[in-house]
Amino acid sequence: MTSNDRTTSTRHTPRLAVEPEALAASERPTPGAISLLPAEGSEVFAEAVRAAGGEVVPLGEETRGLIFLDYSKPELLEQALDDHPNISWVQLPYAGIDAMASRAARHADRGVIFTSAKGAYAEPVAEHALTLALALQRLLPKRLRVTSWGSAEGQSMYGAKVVILGAGGIARALIEQLAPFRAEVTIVRRSSDAVPGATRTVQFAKLDAQLVDADVVILAAAATDETRGLFDARRLALLPEHAVLVNIARGPMVVTDDLVAALDAGTLFGAALDVTDPEPLPAGHPLYSHERAIITPHSADTVEMTTPLLAERIRLNVAAFLETGVFVGRCDPRIGY
Predict the structure, then answer these.
(1) CATH number for the 122-295 domain, one of 3.30.450.70, 2.30.40.10, 3.40.50.720, 3.30.540.10?
(2) What are the DSSP calls for 22-74, one per residue?
(3) Model-level pTM?
(4) What are the structural domain ranges in the chain?
(5) Digits of tens for pLDDT over the chain (337 positions)?
(6) Are the C-beta atoms of residues 171 and 187 closer than 8 Å to each other?
(7) In what order do the strands lie in the sheet with 200-203?
(8) Active site positions, annotated
(9) How far apart are CA 63 and CA 81, in angstroms?
């Protein structure tokens, strides 16, 4: 997550999709100078640090807070924390932290506070998920490929039974975006705490019962051992033939070969994946050409969309680090989110 002097303007100020968390004085990390890794191409984020009153320094003995920006190189984060034990707070660049969790867990054990971008990109990702669901219901993958008129088919989102896995910022943004459709939204999450705006909230143990009459299923949960392979042949078979499946979470939540088989058999109306397993999906994979599938290249949020949103998250959390102790998007590498 770096920026090469891209514009940071945005057309609206997003609402916080996760609640800020205030740490007790005894839990707060030790404030001080802040470093960005990598430092190259990150001036927009350095400006966010300064806007909150922070001092930006090269990674070294002075560093007390770290803005880590390269999700693709988790080993760099591990090395930085090993080499600089005075770091007491780390801001991570994305909502999902699964790639870095195992490398950061032991540093959480010693008291390092971690925050992620959870909720920061919720609105554009939810928008993408809704776009994909509507496109599937209206059979756009098939329509965009035809060379003759064909028959009239399609479904409507109005009054649909929508099942969303996950209760974070994306799920909450989706609830808001689905409201005009008068959809019946069921949230499936680890806890039984109700999610505002949802028709109902159930725990993962009751997932199967929610699938049997679902019209739309959207995966927006964290990647954990519990969610890996969640949608295999057995669960896909629980869905009615008119259901559509959208995954904007992590690829391994869906067993790819089982999904292809379900689409080929016509037991699923359509599937859209912004994340895949493997990722990227190999060239020539049957899902690219399937008339009931849409593949987008992990593009639910682009750099142009996320740069100003991450900069704002950094600004808020630098203020928390230096003064207030009220962090947004606190996460725990030991549990993976």
Answers:
(1) 3.40.50.720
(2) EPPGGGPPPP-EEEEES-TT-HHHHHHHHHTTPPB--SSTTEEEEEE--TT-H
(3) 0.85
(4) 21-120+303-331, 122-295
(5) 444 333 333 444 556 667 799 999 889 999 999 999 999 989 999 999 999 999 999 999 999 999 999 988 999 999 999 999 999 999 999 988 988 999 999 999 999 999 999 999 999 999 999 999 999 999 999 999 999 999 999 999 999 999 999 999 999 999 999 999 999 999 999 998 999 999 999 999 999 999 999 999 999 998 888 999 999 999 999 999 999 999 999 999 999 999 999 999 999 999 999 999 999 999 999 999 999 999 999 999 988 999 999 999 999 999 999 999 999 999 999 998 8
(6) yes
(7) 200-203, 184-189, 161-165, 216-219, 244-247, 270-273, 293-295
(8) 250, 279, 298
(9) 10
Secondary structure letter of residue 224 according to DSSP: -
Residue type, 320: A
Task: Give the type of residue at 68.
Answer: F
Query: In angstroms, what CA-CA distances link 27 with 97, 279, 334?
Result: 22, 38, 17
User: 21-120+303-331 in CATH: which number?
Assistant: 3.40.50.720
Residue with tokens 């927006």: 220
Q: Cα angle at 70 between 67 and 71, to 5 degrees?
A: 110
